[in-house]
Amino acid sequence: MLKIENIWKTFNVGTVNEKTALQGLSLTLREGDFVTVIGGNGAGKSTMLNAVAGVWPVDEGKLYIDNVDVTKLPEYKRAAYLGRVFQDPMTGTAANMQIQENLALALRRGKKRFLSIGITRSEREMYQEKLKVLGLGLEERMTSKVGLLSGGQRQALTLLMATLKKPKLLLLDEHTAALDPKTAAKVLEATDRIVGRDQLTTLMITHNMKDAIAHGNRLIMMHEGRVIYDVSGEEKKRLKVSDLLEKFEQASGGEFANDRMMLA
Prior knowledge:
Layout: E1 2-11, E2 19-29, E3 34-39, H1 45-53, E4 60-65, E5 68-69, H2 75-78, E6 82-85, H3 99-107, H4 121-132, H5 151-163, E7 169-173, H6 181-198, E8 202-205, H7 209-214, E9 218-223, E10 226-232, H8 233-237, H9 241-252, H10 256-263
Parallel strand pairs: 3-8, 3-9, 6-7, 7-8
Antiparallel strand pairs: 1-2, 1-4, 4-5, 9-10
């Protein structure tokens, strides 16, 4: 479903701030893979997601989504293949619109989007059923303005909107990092339910190693713009945080002390 083929990306070329963020990165996701991504600061995790989303062009290499070469596609055209949830809960929803209106916009993704004809009864019933999956009681508040919701509720709604029309690939960019632990756990539970129910191919960046181990069927660790560890299946289930710390220490050497607290 996703094939990243030897991609390179350097920022601020020719300046003192030149930084090579991706160095020959290659990664393949099969349909239905739920891959968690960890790594220290500057490992290239978000750069990889932005490259997949088309936020900026890559310097070298190829990107394929569902066997379609999207390397040269601009971000707005690539969006037809993707669902994405960002770290900031305020991103991805329209605060001055109702919950059901936000969902209606998400349902009309890829079409001309307007609400003048209103939301049909069957649509409203469908939204209620979808909202129940989140377990937050939002199905009883569909006419509430999104701006009145908590950060966790907005993030869960954004997740639902990103997956309402089944995307080829779901990108989760530290989507629970800004939430308190209890709320983050609820959003991750909802993520598992939605991804599992719809068999969504998913890339989830996280700084929490326990979450990286607990969720998904595959885990990759990045360092200096490339994948240094890739584990799945039974081997992933047996992983412990200490195993990941050891792998990270081996890869990063002197940087380990600086990143340890962030990764723990």
